[in-house]
Amino acid sequence: MALMITDECINCDVCEPECPNGAISAGEEIYVIDPNLCTECVGHYDEPQCQQVCPVDCIPLDPERKESHDELMDKYRVITAA
């Protein structure tokens, strides 16, 4: 699954630089995650780095974007051309 940022986001700016795929960016009101770039850090780390640094725990899995570990790894390979 891709991750998403909920409206509890406080715009603290700590998640964006942690994303190895550049999937997080400033939206109109809160940060947003591009689901086409989010691999939950599969291929880079064992755990999603944005979730690890978020002080308000507002980055859950997006229930509308279910992906298996293998699908996330395939997406990682495409993104990184590995």
Care to describe what's here?
This protein is of the alpha+beta class. The protein has a single domain (16-81), classed as Alpha-Beta Plaits. The protein has helices spanning 49-53, 69-80, and strands spanning 24-26, 31-33. It comes from Halomonas korlensis. This is 4Fe-4S dicluster domain-containing protein. One of its GO terms (molecular function) is 4 iron, 4 sulfur cluster binding.
Distance between the termini: 21 Å
Helix content: 10-25%
Q: Write down the domain tally.
A: 1
Task: Give the strand order of the largest sheet, numbering strands 1, 2, ... along the chain.
Answer: 1-2
Strand content: 5-15%
Shape: globular
Oligomeric assembly = single chain
Rg, nearest Å: 12 Å
* Total DSSP helices: 2
CATH architecture: 2-Layer Sandwich
GO cellular component, one term: cytoplasm
Protein name: 4Fe-4S dicluster domain-containing protein
GO molecular function, one term: metal ion binding
Keywords: 4Fe-4S, Electron transport, Iron, Iron-sulfur, Metal-binding, Repeat, Transport
Features:
two-stranded antiparallel sheet, alpha+beta, 82 residues
List the helices and strands and how they pair.
Blueprint (H helix, E strand, L loop, with lengths): L23 E3 L4 E3 L15 H5 L15 H12 L2
Antiparallel strand pairs: 1-2
